[in-house]
Amino acid sequence: MASSLKIAYYGDDFTGATDTLATATRAGLRTLLFLGLPSAAQLERAGPLDCIGIAGAARAMSPAEMQAELEPVGRLFAQLGAPVMHYKTCSTFDSAPHVGSIGAAIRILQPHSANAFVPIVGGQPNLKRYCVFSNLFASAGEPIHRIDRHPTMRQHPVTPMAEADLRLHLAEQGLAHVAGIHYPDYAQTSDTLDLQLSALIAQKPDAVLFDIAGIDHLATVGRSIWQQALRQPLLAVGPSAVVQALAAHWESKPAATREAIAPAQGPVLVLAGSLSPVTARQVAAASSYEHMLLDVARLTNDAADRRQMALNISARLLQGISVLACTSGAGPAGNADASASPRELAWACGDLLAQVLEMSPVQRLGIAGGDTSSHAVQALDAWGLSYQAQIAPGVALCRLHSDDTRLDGLEIMLKGGQMGGEMLFEELLTGR
């Protein structure tokens, strides 16, 4: 594997990790996403790969927890010898010094790469995320908002984004010197841009942030990263735009934007553990499902009640009825009842899902919510995911790999709160 491997990435949550899986596969890279640190046997079983990923949950961890999580990842990636080690962040960069710290991730992983240069790619145009003069902008439906004025991200319940300049945002996480290369610089000749980057690297910054204001910028940024990676392996940070930039430089041709998705064979289960406004609209539009509200307090605090919820969901699935199970009591930021922490809720949803699938295996599953997806998939006896099709930008339909025959081959969609169109859950069931 080492001879062909170009990229080894860690996704700080499962939904984002599947977006990078889709991005790499659609760019023609042989890619497999592992659901934990892979064993030597699993790596051997995967065969030759151009890109490997590890789906994690660092976005919801404290710096101490991130140290325990990421240190062995860094060691493994260094052993595999990929020129680019990619720490995959959310495209909105939501993080904080005390939880999901991007600064902490860089401090942990960078010593495992020989190159002191740490590029950060801001923006991901296909998701309507743009970085201009180091300031991040993101869509909320049709309007584009500066991230500190975004109606959802400015009041995220765990990592609210109060600063749009990513250099200042990351300074709060211990990266005191983040240099910036801004998009007007990309109009220079390649040689001039190379000299500018070399001068910045000579100043020994903690990282160098690249603007992405449009898809035309990807290849330029990818070239800058790849040239440095060929000299010495490096750590790159950012959303799936890191892989998009490299693929654009390599002139890899993306697959068609809308692969056909067959209708589900049998009932579909969707689990929405938290409700962003986008997910709330998707839930409201999912008329082909029986909706079952999950009481957050009972779900998180009472194992017997959680078992009964699993029995109720399983009973309907066994009758051939598709079920959309979602938490009740959504608050102003689209989050479930604040009596439970996001981590407690995500863990409880994972336990609920494992119980349901044990009693009533399904062939297609959807999970909404970044933290919910991470903990829910971790609760399953599975070791990998491969890409099947793109349902929407940032939302992939994947195949689960497991030694448990009841789970192996399960089609699974993981989506973040901000991703997908209004009819997403309907398309998961009916295909397109």
UniProtKB/TrEMBL annotation:
Keywords: ATP-binding, Carbohydrate metabolism, Kinase, Nucleotide-binding, Transferase
Short name of any one Pfam family annotated for the protein: SBD_N
InterPro entries linked to this entry: 4-carb_acid_sugar_kinase_N (IPR010737), 4-carb_acid_sugar_kinase_N_sf (IPR037051), NBD_C (IPR031475), NBD_C_sf (IPR042213)
GO molecular function: ATP binding; kinase activity
Four-carbon acid sugar kinase nucleotide binding domain segment(s): 269-425
SUPFAM superfamilies (UniProt xref): YgbK-like (SSF142764)
NAD in keyword set: no
Limits of the Four-carbon acid sugar kinase N-terminal domain: 7-246
Superkingdom of the organism of origin: Bacteria
Similarity comment: Belongs to the four-carbon acid sugar kinase family.
Protein name: Four-carbon acid sugar kinase family protein
